[in-house]
Structure formats: structure tokens, C-alpha cells
């Protein structure tokens, strides 16, 4: 199968609509990461997502809809705070989990009774959604467990020959996947942290909880059960304040003939003078925007990526840490390298 990369134009959007309504898959840009989309009403098409990605079939998908789409066609909105959050944070990087009306195919919700819904703010995604006129279910457009893609080229690296079309909408600005929020209870509960933080949600809803996932829990959200975001090289992660240990591992790796690379915030770069460093920038938003691109670049440049955690762990940093901890194993825990 030939895989085309086309800019988002009226012609390419029309082609994407034809493929999607014909039961095919299209990679679509959003403000968070690129998604691998299928018609949410077409169970056979959705099965292809799991096959193409190698994704476990008990890992549910998010339904993406146009800003003008009536959510009550798909879900029950039982709590007033959910409407307030929708008004405040959408379109944008917030996914809300509602009780489903069963309209989206069972393959997308893995037979569950809830549906995760998001309204992306990326104009390219909105054009495709408006043209298709149906909810598009989509996980990240990469091979399962690999680093999520934030450029069309990242998608091509993983999926060329597997899908017919990638719409190139530029580099994603958010850089990590959406916050997933369970709004089925009296208090909203974050299932996956992201750019819309607990503090932001609580300021609108009055309160917000963070889910403590257990192996026996019914999965309502992607990104909580399996390994994710992993580069194709060895990795090691150190806490803030352990720069000397990180530098020592770097030097040991290089001395033994390996290629090493340091991944850290800009404020810690000075601790690694003379070494190969990719800076994630300054602040939680910058680190989120740069993390996946840095991991993709790092796996090409090094045999070992050595990541140093940010000292701050709240706000957007919580989403960064969520991805970093899944991508990079803590040095010395469960094996020294991932």
C-alpha cells in the first residue's frame, strides 16, 4: 500500500472523507498528537486500527467530533459541571468520559458502557470532522507502545505501507495527549493527566480527583493500562538532583563505546557541559510540547537516552511526568535500562 503525505487542503480533506466513509484509515493532525482515525460507526474499520497499530483490543478509543456536533447524540450528560467544562476547555485538549448511548461501535469502546469524547481545536482536524460528518475514533498514529507522533513524518516512520493517507497539519503544539476526565460521577476524576490540569478543572467544577488505577479496574480511558511512549533504544531516568549520577552513566556508556544522550529541562543543561543534550525547554508547557519529539530524535542519535526529571511535579508537569515515567524506566528499578 502506498502511503501519501498531503497538506490539509480542500482536495486532501475530500480524499480523507472518501477513505473514512469507505471504511479506511487516515492519520489526522490534532493540537496534541497525530491520530489514526476511522469512522466511529463502522466496526470493521475500527478493527483495522487495532490491527495496524498492534494495539490490545481491550484498550478503548476516543471519539473526536466537530465543535458543532451535538454530544447528546452519543452520550448522556448527567452532571452540570460537564457542560461548564465543555464550555470552558473545548475545543481543546480535554477528553471527557460519559455514559454511552451505544451509537459508537462496540469495537471502539471495547464493549464498555462509557465513551470518551474530544473536540479538537486544530483547524485541520476540524475540517476533516466537519467534512466526514461522523465521529472519528482515533488513538495516536503510531505503532503501539512506541513514542507518540507529533509530526507527519513521525507517523510515516511507523505506519508507511499500512495506511493510505497522512494529512500534514504541521508539528503538534501541545505535544502530549489530552487530559482524560471521567465525568460520570458527582466529582470529575482525571484518568490521564495532560495539558488541562487538575487545578484548572477544579476552578470550574469546584473539585477534581485523580484516579488511582488498579489492575482490576474497568478500563475507561486509553493510556492507563499498557506501556506507552517507549523509544527504540535503552533508557534510564534520574530524579532532579541526581545530575551527577546521570552524568556518570553517560560517561560510562561513552567510554564503553556506546552513544548516550541527556534529556532534561533547560535549567539543568549546565550540569552536562560537553555532553550530548536535548533540552526540553523551560516550563511545563514547553516540556510537554517537546517531549515526544525529543524522544524520537534521541532514539536516532543514541543507544541510551538518560532522562532527568523536572523538580516540579504539579500542573502540566504532572502530564509530562506521566509520559516520562512510562517511556523511561527509573535507573536501578526493575533493571538498569529499559
If you had to describe this structure to a student in words, what would you say it looks like?
The structure is a single chain. The chain is of the alpha/beta class. The chain folds into two domains: 207 residues, DHBP synthase, CATH 3.90.870.10; 94 residues, 3-Layer(aba) Sandwich (Rossmann fold), CATH 3.40.50. The chain has ten helices and 16 strands. The strands form two sheets. Strands 1, 2, 3, 4, 5, 6, 7, 8, 9, 10, 11 and 12 form a twelve-stranded mixed beta sheet that branches. A hairpin with a 6-residue loop joins strand 2 and strand 3. Helix 1 packs across helix 5 and helix 9 runs parallel beside helix 10. It is globular. The relative contact order is 0.15.
Topology:
Layout (H helix, E strand, L loop, with lengths): L3 E4 L2 H12 L4 E3 L6 E5 L3 H11 L8 E3 L10 E2 L3 H10 L4 E7 L5 H4 L4 E5 L4 H10 L3 E3 L13 H8 L5 E4 L10 E4 L6 E4 L5 H8 L3 E2 L23 E5 L4 H13 L4 E5 L12 E3 L4 H18 L2 E5 L7 H12 L11
Parallel strand pairs: 1-9, 2-9, 4-7, 6-10, 11-12, 13-16, 14-15, 14-16
Antiparallel strand pairs: 2-3, 3-8, 4-8, 5-6, 6-7, 10-11
Helix pairs in contact: 1-5, 9-10
Please indicate the percent range of residues in DSSP E strands (runs of 2 or more). Answer: 15-25%
Number of domains: 2
Rg over CA atoms, rounded to whole Å, is 20 Å
Output the structural class.
alpha/beta
Q: What is the residue-averaged pLDDT?
A: 94
CATH topology category name of the largest domain = DHBP synthase
Q: What's the name of the CATH homologous superfamily of the largest domain?
A: DHBP synthase
The first-level CATH class of the largest domain is given as: Alpha Beta
Taken from the alpha-carbon principal axes, the silhouette is globular
Number of helices: 10
Architecture (CATH level 2) name of the largest domain: Alpha-Beta Complex
Helix content: 25-40%
> Poorly predicted ranges (pLDDT <50, ≥5 residues)?
none
**How many angstroms does the end-to-end distance come to?**
33 Å
Q: State the total count of DSSP E strands.
A: 16
In sequence order, what are the helices and strands, one letter per element? EHEEHEEHEHEHEHEEEHEEHEEHEH
Biggest sheet statistics: 12 strands, mixed
Amino acid at each position: 500500500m502506498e502511503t501519501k503525505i498531503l497538506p490539509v487542503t480542500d482536495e486532501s480533506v475530500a480524499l480523507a472523507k472518501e477513505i473514512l466513509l469507505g471504511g479506511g484509515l487516515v492519520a489526522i493532525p490534532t493540537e496534541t498528537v497525530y491520530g489514526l482515525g476511522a469512522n466511529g460507526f463502522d466496526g470493521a474499520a475500527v478493527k483495522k486500527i487495532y490491527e495496524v497499530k498492534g494495539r490490545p483490543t481491550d484498550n478503548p478509543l476516543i471519539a473526536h467530533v466537530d465543535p458543532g456536533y451535538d454530544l447528546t447524540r452519543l452520550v448522556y450528560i448527567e452532571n452540570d459541571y460537564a457542560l461548564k467544562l465543555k464550555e470552558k476547555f473545548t475545543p481543546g485538549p480535554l477528553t471527557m468520559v460519559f455514559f454511552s448511548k451505544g451509537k459508537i461501535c462496540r469495537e471502539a469502546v471495547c464493549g464498555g458502557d462509557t465513551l470518551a469524547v474530544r473536540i479538537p481545536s486544530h483547524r485541520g482536524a476540524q475540517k476533516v470532522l466537519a467534512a466526514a460528518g461522523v465521529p472519528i475514533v482515533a488513538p495516536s498514529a503510531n505503532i503501539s507502545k512506541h513514542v507518540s507522533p507529533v509530526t507527519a513524518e513521525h507517523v510515516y516512520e511507523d505506519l508507511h505501507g499500512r495506511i493510505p493517507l497522512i494529512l500534514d497539519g504541521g508539528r503538534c503544539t501541545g505535544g502530549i495527549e489530552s487530559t482524560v476526565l471521567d465525568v460520570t460521577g458527582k466529582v470529575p476524576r482525571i484518568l490521564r493527566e495532560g495539558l488541562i490540569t487538575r487545578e484548572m478543572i477544579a476552578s470550574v467544577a469546584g473539585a477534581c480527583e485523580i484516579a488511582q488505577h488498579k489492575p482490576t479496574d474497568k478500563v475507561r480511558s486509553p493510556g492507563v493500562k499498557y506501556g506507552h511512549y517507549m523509544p527504540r533504544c535503552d533508557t534510564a531516568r534520574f530524579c532532579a538532583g541526581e545530575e551527577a549520577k546521570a552524568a556518570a552513566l553517560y560517561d560510562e556508556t561513552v567510554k564503553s563505546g556506546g552513544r548516550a544522550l541527556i534529556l532534561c529541562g533547560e535549567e539543568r543543561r549546565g550540569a552536562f557541559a560537553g555532553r550530548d543534550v536535548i533540552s526540553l525547554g523551560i516550563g511545563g508547557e514547553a516540556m510537554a510540547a517537546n517531549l515526544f519529539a525529543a524522544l524520537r530524535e534521541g532514539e536516532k542519535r543514541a543507544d541510551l537516552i538518560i532522562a532527568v526529571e523536572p523538580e516540579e511535579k504539579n500542573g502540566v508537569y504532572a502530564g509530562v511526568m506521566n509520559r516520562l515515567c512510562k517511556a523511561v524506566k527509573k535507573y536501578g528499578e526493575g533493571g538498569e535500562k529499559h
